[in-house]
Amino acid sequence: MHSSMIGKIAKAKQYAQEPERIRFTQFEATFRGENDTHQITFEEGAWHCTCHFFSDWGACCHTMAGERIFGMMIPAHQRQGEPLPVNYVALR
Ligand SMILES: [Zn+2]
Q: Does the residue 16 lie in any domain?
């Protein structure tokens, strides 16, 4: 294997241990809930879910679970009030 590619693989392994380097700006996913499958989206700092609860409350277990899964990759000011993990490192 080419030495420069070996270096990139090593760097990728390091980066994979530092998820705070990644900040999502948008994404879309399906979420398989207990009763139905919903579509969750995150775009321009706003969450959306196709479930009925979200349309009434502006947050739901699917979007809050998404925040927990993606953790610090969602900017703090765009979170829906979920507590941050104890080891959270604020990045600007
Ligand atoms: Zn939902």
A: yes
Residue-wise pLDDT tens digits, 40-56: 999 988 999 999 999 99
pLDDT tens profile 61-71: 999 998 888 87
Domain around 44: 3-78
As a whole number of angstroms, the distance between CA 87 and CA 90 comes to 10
Distance 46 CA to ligand 1 centre (A): 13
- Distance from the alpha carbon of residue 35 to the mean position of ligand 1, in angstroms: 11
The reported pTM is: 0.71
Residue 20 lies in a domain: yes
CA atoms within 13 A on the CB side of 90: 6
Into how many domains does the chain fold? Answer: 1
State in Å: Cα 54 to ligand 1 middle.
5
